[in-house]
Structure formats: C-alpha cells, structure tokens
Amino acid sequence: MRQGRTGANTTKRVASALPRYALLLLSAAVILFPLYMTVVDSLQTLDKLLTYPPDFWPNSPQWSNYRSAMTDIPMPRYMMNSLIVAAVITLGQVSTAALAAYAFAFMRFPLRTPLFFIFLSTMMVPWEASIIPNFQTIQRLDWIDTYQGLTVPFLATAFGTFLLRQHFLTLPRELKDAADIDGYGNLKFLLFVVIPLSRAALATLAVFSFLQAWNQYLWPLLVTNEPDMRTVQIGIAALQAEEVQRTNVVLAGTVIALLPMLVLVIVFQRFLVRGLTAGAVKG
Amino acid sequence: MHRLVFALVCVAASLALASCGESGPRTTNGRTEIVFWHSMGGVNGDALQRMANGFNASQDAYHVRPVFQGGFPDSLKKLVSSFGTDSMPALIQLDDIQLRFMVDSQATVPLQDFIDLEDATSAAMQGYPPAVDLADFEPRALAYYSLEGRLRAMPFNLSGPVLYYDKDAFREAGLDPERPPTTFDEVRDYSERLLRRDQGGGVTRNGVALNISAWYFEQMLAKQGALYANNGNGREGLATEVRFDGAEGEEILTWWQEMVDSGLATNVGQQGLQALLSVLSGKSAMAIESTAAMRSVLLALGPGAARFGAGPLPAPYSPDGGIVIGGAAAWIISDRPDIEQRGGWEFLKYATRPDIQAQWHVDTGYFPVRVSAWDMEPAASLHRDVPQFTAARAQLLGSPLNLVTAGAVIGPFTQVRESVIEALEQVLVGDKEPREALDDAAADANRAIERYNRSVTE
Amino acid sequence: MSRADASLRVRRGRLITRGAGELLAAAPFLLPSLLLFGVFVFYPLVRSVYLGFHATDPFGRREVWIGIEQYRDVLTSSDFVNSLFVTGQFTLYTVIPATAIGLYLALLAHQRLPGIVVFRTIFSSTVASSVAVSSVMFLLLLNPGIGVLNYLIDRTGGPTVSWLTDPAWALPAVAMTTVWMNLGFATIVILAGLQNIPDDLYEAARADGASPRDEFLHVTLPGLSPTLLFVSVVGVIFAFQSFGQIHILTRGGPLDSTTVIVYSIYQEAFLHYNIGLASAQAVVLFVIVLLLTLAQFAIAQRWVFYR
After folding, report:
1. What pTM was computed for the model?
2. Do C130 and A115 lie within an 8 Å CB cutoff?
3. Cα–Cα distance measured from residue A114 to residue A105, given in angstroms and rounded to the nearest whole number
4. Per mean pLDDT, which range of B241-245, B335-339, B379-383 is the poorest?
5. What is the distance in angstroms between the Cα of C92 and the nearest Cα belonging to chain A?
6. How far is Cα B407 from Cα B146, in angstroms, rounded to an integer?
7. Could you tell me how far CA A272 lies from the centroid of its own chain?
C-alpha cells in the first residue's frame, strides 16, 4: 500500500519532470551543437567537408586527421607554449597580488590610501589602450618571441590585489596580534597563516588569471613571430587561415586545443564555480 | 628616461631568461643560418622547403631555414615589429605592392648591389660569364621590382589573374569550350547563356563568381592601358595621387555592379578561393582567380581537372594594356650581418636557376622567373599535360612592357587597396554609384598617400 | 613655548621616522606590483598621449611634434566615429543576449532534478572555449555555401544569409559567436548567484502565497541584482576588449561594419603603421572606458540590491 503510493508519486514526479527534461535537453543540444559539428567536420575528408548539404554524422570517420593535427601541424608545441604562459602569469599574479593585498590589509604605512587608489586606477586603463607603447617596450627589450615578452607585462593585477585584500580583511584581527606576539614577521605571517586561510580566494584569482591568460589573443599575436613561440590561440587562428586545403585537420587541431580546457572545466567545475562566484559577490 | 625604464625592466623582470642585447650571425651545425620568412602555405610551402633543402645540400657554408609567417600582411607586420631587434630574418618574401614601403624602410640591401659586385668580379676575371644572366630573367618581373633603375628585390614567385571556366557547362550552353570570353561584354553574353534556373526561378548556376579583390581591379585597369597612380605609376617620381578614378576604373565598377545586380555573377566576398570553389561545386560556370591557385586546385581534382579551362583575364581591350606581374619578391635585410646577407644572396641565385625554376613552376603553378625555364623539364611536360598553364603563359607574354604593366609603386599600398575594396563593396551593396564610390576611394587613397609621404620624407 | 615647539618637532620627527620605517617595511610587498604597473600601465599611458601629438614614420625612426592634429583627425574622422558606433552596437548585441540566455540557462539548471549536474556542466562548458577556438568553429558554421546554419535556415524555408560578408549581418554573426563563447561564464556566475539566495526568502514568499512569477520578480531578481550587474559589467569590458573574433572572422569588414575600436587601433598601428594616429585613438578609448567605469559605479550604487 505504502509502496504503491510512493510508486505512484514517483511516476507523477517523473511525469511532471518530463517537460523540464525536454527543455534541458533541447538547451543542451543547442549549446553543444557548434562543438558537435566541429567534431563531425574534423572527422570528414576534405571532399565531404566541402559538399552541400552538410553531413551531420561522419559516415567514414577519418581518425587520421587527428594524427595529422599532432604531427603535420605543431599542435603539441602550441599547447605547451600556452600552458607555460598561462602558468607563469597565474603564478605571478597570485604572488604579486598576495603580497600587495597583504600590505594593504595588514600593514600600516603612510600613503596607504593613495597607493591603494593608484592600484585601483590601473583597472581603468584598458590593456588595449596601452598596447602600442607596451609593444615598443617589448620590441626594444628584444623580447619578441620570448616567454618573458608573453608574460612579464601581465604579472601584476589590480583586480587580484583588490580581491585578495577584501578577503584578507575578513580574517580576524586577533590573528595578526597573536602573530606579532609570537614574533612572526610579515612574510612569515603571510605565508603560514594568511595564505592557508585564503585558499579559496587564491584559487578564485588563479582560475581567473589562468582562463584570461589562456585566452589571450591580441598580445601573443603581436609579440610572436616564430611559429615555435605561438600560443595555441594564435596557432589555431593562423592554421585556419593558412591551411585552407587541410581545413579538416585544422578542425581536429581545434578540438585538440579545446579538450584540455574542457576537461579542466569539468573536473574542477565546483571549484571553478566557487572561484567565479567569489568574483561576483565580493568583487 | 626610456633607457632607465628598460634597464629597470631588464633587471627586475627576469633574472634568469632575459638577455638584453646580443648579436652576431646565426649559426647552426657550424653553418651560417639564413632565416627566410615567407608566406607560402600548404603545397607551395612544401615546395619552398624542398628548394631550401636542395640549396642546403648543394653547399656547406649556409643553411637556409624557411619560416612560414602567415599571409604577407602578417609577415610585414612582424618585420616592422622586429626592426632594430635581433629577431629580424636575413631574407623575407613580401608581396609585390610593398616595393615602395620596403625601399623607404631602408631595412634592405638593394639586390642590384650584389649583382653589381658579382659583375665587377667577373669582369675582373676575364673570360668568366656574368654570374647572373639578367637577360634570361622575366623582363616584366625585373621591370616591376626595379626603382630608379636599380633592382630592389629578387622576383621570387610570379603570378597573374586568369579566368577559370567549366568546359562542360560551356558545351551544355552551346559555347565553344576552347574559346573563353575575353572582354566584359563577352563575359556578360556568355553568362546569360550559362545561367540556369530551377522551376521556382531560383538561380542554380550563375555565369561567373567574383570575389572582391583590389588586385583584380588593378589588373583590369592595366589591361585597359590605364595608369593606377600619377608620376608614371610612381616610377618617374614619387606617386602623390592615384589615377584609378578615371573612365576605365568607372567602367570596371559599373560592369561588376551590373553583373552582380542582374544575377549573372555572384559576389563571394573577400575570401580568396571562394570563387574557384563556386566553380568546382558547379554553382558558377566561371571564376577569376590567380594562377597561384592553379597548382593546388588541379592537384586536388586529379583527372577531373581536365574539365576546367583557363583563359586570360577579361577586360576591355587596349593595345597598351596587359597584366601587371603579381606575386612576391625576396628582400635581403640590411640589419643582418654581412655573412647572412651573402648567404641570402647565394640562396636567391640558387632559387632562380632555370632548372630550379622549372621545378618551382611545376610544384606551385607560379610562373618561372627565368625565361629558359619554360622549356625545361619538368615544366615543358607540364604544359603538355595541363594546358591551363599555357593560357596563363600566353597572357603574360602578350603583355607589352611599359609603365602601365610595370605596375604602380605606392607607399601605403595596403591602405589604397582597402579604399578600392570599400568602393567595390559599396557599389555591390548598392550604397553608392560607381562614380561616387570611385571618387571617395580616390580621396581616401590620396589622404593615405599624403600622410605617408609626409611622414617618410618631411 | 619653545619647549612645546621642540617636543612637537621631536614628535613629528619620530612620526616621520616611524612612517619611513613602515613604508620601508611595506615596500617589498608593494614594489613588485608597482614596478610592473609603472612600466606596463602608467608609462604606456603617458607615452600614448605623447605619441598622439607626434607624427611617426612607419619604421619607428621619426617622431615629429604636430600638436593636436591627430586627436582632431580621430574625433572628426567618420571611420573612427563609425568604430565607436560599431563597438556600442557590439556591446548591446553581446551583453544583453549573453546575460539573458545565461539567466535562462541558470534558472533551468537550478532545478532540483536527478542528473542536473550533467546539464550544469554542459551549460557552463563554453567557458572552456577560447576566442580562437570559438571563432574557428563558427567560421565553418557560418560559411554561406556549405555551413550548417544556412542549411538549417534553407530547410525551414527561410532566406539564407551571407553571414560574414553581408554588412548587415556580419556584426550580428560575430556577436553570436561571442555570445556563445561567453554563455558558459554568464551561466556559472548566475547559477552561483541563485544558490546564494537564502531558501528562507522563498519559503517566506510562499507562505505569503506568492506565485512563481512573484517569486521570480520579488525574490530571485533582486537577489540576483549584484550578480547580474557583475555579469554585464564583465560583458561590457569583454565587448570593449574584443579583438580575436573580429580578427579571425571578418578582419573588420565588410565595409567596416565590424571594425570595433580595438580592431581600428590594431589596423592603424600594425597594418597601416600609423603609430601616432593609432595612439591618439588609444587615448580616446582610454577616456571612454574611464567614463564608462565611472558610470557603472554610479549605476551600481543606485539600483543594485546588496544584502
């Protein structure tokens, strides 16, 4: 009896959920459609790819396109460049921001407020507006085609400093007093007390920095000449324009470029959400 | 002040990696390395690599390393961005229209310097023939890349525009498949007969696919014997104004507009190769495209290629008119050490050997730089097997040598082309009539030229 | 009198000494950032203004003072005004749809259903897609001849469109690519915003007999306002920085219909080699973004409901 009622309930719940699932599925299909078509096209022969009407299913999938993408076009190299650049920028931004945020949150010194405003004011300068002198700087330093040219201009972040400072301010003041009594220096206190207590905020910043660095387009376009120094973004875009006769292979490369980030997003989904949310609520 | 900032960055930014200033020739495995920036993608890039391999195997002093830099604008952008740095290449391939810009940049050594040096040497050692037999070089290419009587860069890959057409469609429409249209009027007449509609009246096949290209405009102007810029196309003095806004230019725009408006032609936008793809897929019966596309397209088609013919670029006839040789040239960069420049020169001599050029012609579809290469193997048999090439050659050889066909020399040519493209787009969209669009384009172009000339010479 | 003076001076002296000491202690923490900002933010700003007053040759050898001529050219040239207009349009075309669709997807994914995590993942997945990847993907979808989009339109009987070559459609097409790319980010943030609205607010609303519509209007939306503001602010910033999709899809064309400011700067500086003129444009861009930022602060204080 009880069993029956629950069963009926479940059926009813499922029935009422059906339209909602339909909507979810439809939305998911629309979102995934561009990616799906790219995968299909990346498995076609060039002939097939260029015929109309388009195929929605690869009838004879050409997996060799993926092998070509890894060997004929330098995808692995591009991916590695992007990884290095994004990792260095992330590490740099987290470090410089944590240091500065610590000073603004825990230290007393003259000119603190004006200095903080100087930091904040940099957020109002769009990077694109200062790209010409920055490019000239890198050129005169002879940093074209170098990792330092790709990363150094981005190693400091006002946004990150602000974000971390806001978090540091929520930490109990007593910690600092206790640390002072224990004779902890500032750096020691930052490293061994503040940072362990701020993992979420640091992760927030790291996620932001990494995504932004990975996605960069204009700057690496300007400061890389050697194909060996191209990031994956520039590599993909360049191949798309250059390898018209191998569009299918380039598409395979595009899928390969997307995969690691996709895996990252899926694996660290909860983490990523927390990161981006912190930006939304506190930033 | 600058210096201080840079020094600070050098110190502060990276203690490990930064090397603020180094120079000297590049070397690899005990040879001098010659970095060659080029823009030959796909099949043509492979051919270039083979050419470099051949040179590297032929001697042991130099090693040429071709580095693909994307399209010509990308490559030029990178060159300009590396002025004064160690990342400059020893050799760079740039498209024809950058002639004035490259000369003004003073970043290159005129090729004539090397030729003169070799001539002096061979004259000193009596009995030796000149190392470079300029008489055997394609005269139109020498004319194009010479300024003030001196050859500035080595013609590297030469091309011209041709009309590709579908012979089957011609037969079906009762047209002679061996006689493609040569004038604007003929293209219109042929297109009317080639046009096919379905029952609903929708066009299933149009006459000709046209992609918006300032290059075709330049070529159609030259075929009518008209100058593109003043002061003899910028060859008798610095060009200060464009001349493309005359009656000949208006005729091109008017024809283009009428063809597209009437549905006889389809506008496929600015992307290269789209027009040709339109013919290959049967949507159009004819298309204008560069000979540079010939090799890769015919290669992709295999035996099916016989269906497609090639004819001269259609335009109103003028006895003084002809095509301007297109393509690109290789420049030797003056900032690189002498030994790299010499290596670059040696490579260019090798690359323009008749036998190498015959192979290059077959591999890429570009015209050979050397006249004698046409009749050498494997070029000779190519012309037997692929008659499309012969039509392209006939058009080239039929062009007279004069200031019109030598081509325009303008500093900001890229911007001038942009204004022409804008005019074409405006006319095709219906925003402006040909005359108005042309006048506006000329005004834009003249402004760009004035700004450029002022910045370079003031 | 003089003793008081002296003690004041001593105290002030001590204060200064202490201040200097504190500043010295803080310096190692601040200098890395300050140095980088100095070299890569403030110096370039000054230098841009400076370059805007100078005519430059394409080869970086000459800088000739010409006064405000280039600033005047920029502000009066129809091309630059057009690029401002295009940027504004592009902002509208991207921020509003991305926020609205993001909100819709987030609401869908906020339901308590078995397997909802899968959908959340899918909806947020485009955050993994970079500008180059997205653009290359859409380039094929948007191909007028063989692209799927036109095929679908054709099948449903609509008129097909030359997406990237028709001046009327190019900007919407680029915007579509951008919206798709930004959807993941918008969805993630809004979803998190939804989860931050306390359940007791809904329970209270339901106890008062609120309909789902009332709940949405009076609980969800106000609760989401900081989140929605954040998403649109970031969207506006993204829009003003957009470059990659335009560089890959349209190169600013056709007829400059997709020449946003950043592309215009790029074109002037790195394709036309007019560094001076491009710098003048960059300065104008800076001023505009500054004004926008200030406006956003003002708006934020007015209507955002902070708990």
Report:
1. 0.85
2. no
3. 14
4. B379-383
5. 19
6. 11
7. 10
Contacts C37 to A, Cβ<8 Å: 118-119, 122, 156, 158
Q: How large is the ipTM? A: 0.85
Q: Give the model's pLDDT for residue C304.
A: 55
**Interchain pair C30, A115: CB under 8 A:** yes
**CB-CB neighbors (< 8 A) of B82 in chain A:** 139, 144, 225
C89-146: pLDDT as tens digits: 999 999 999 999 999 999 999 988 888 989 998 998 898 888 999 999 999 899 877 7
The DSSP secondary structure of C244-297, one letter per residue, reads HHHHHHTTT-STTTT--HHHHHHIIIIIS--HHHHHHHHHHHHHHHHHHHHHHH
Q: For C41-150, where are the E strands, in sequence order?
A: 54-56, 63-65
Chain C positions touching B269 (Cβ under 8 A) are: 144, 162, 164-165, 254
With an 8 Å Cβ cutoff, the interface of chain C facing chain B consists of 35, 38-39, 43, 55-60, 62, 64, 144-145, 162, 164-165, 167, 253-256, 270-274
Residue C306: per-residue pLDDT: 47
Q: Pick A218's closest partner by Cβ from C29, C146, C243.
A: C243
- Residue C241 near residue A126, CB atoms below 8 Å: yes
Return d(Cα A179, Cα A165) in angstroms, integer: 18
Q: What's the CA gap between A121 and C236, in Å, rounded?
A: 18
Report the alpha-carbon distance of residue A20 to residue C147 in Å, rounded: 31
Report the candidate in A113, A104, A92 with the shortest Cα–Cα distance to residue A205.
A92
In B, minimum Cα distance to A153 occurs at: B13
Decide if B430 touches A, using CB distance below 8 A: no
pLDDT along chain A (283 residues), means of 10: 55 78 94 94 83 81 88 88 96 96 91 90 85 92 92 93 89 85 86 88 83 88 87 88 80 90 78 59 36
On whether the CB atoms of residues A169 and A247 are closer than 8 A, the answer is no
pLDDT per residue as tens digits for the range A209-260: 888 888 889 999 999 888 889 999 999 988 887 777 788 888 999 999 898 8
Output Rg (C-alpha) for chain C, integer angstroms: 26
Task: Look at residue C253 in the predicted model and tell me its pLDDT.
Answer: 76
**DSSP code for C56:** E
For residue C263, the one-letter residue type is Y
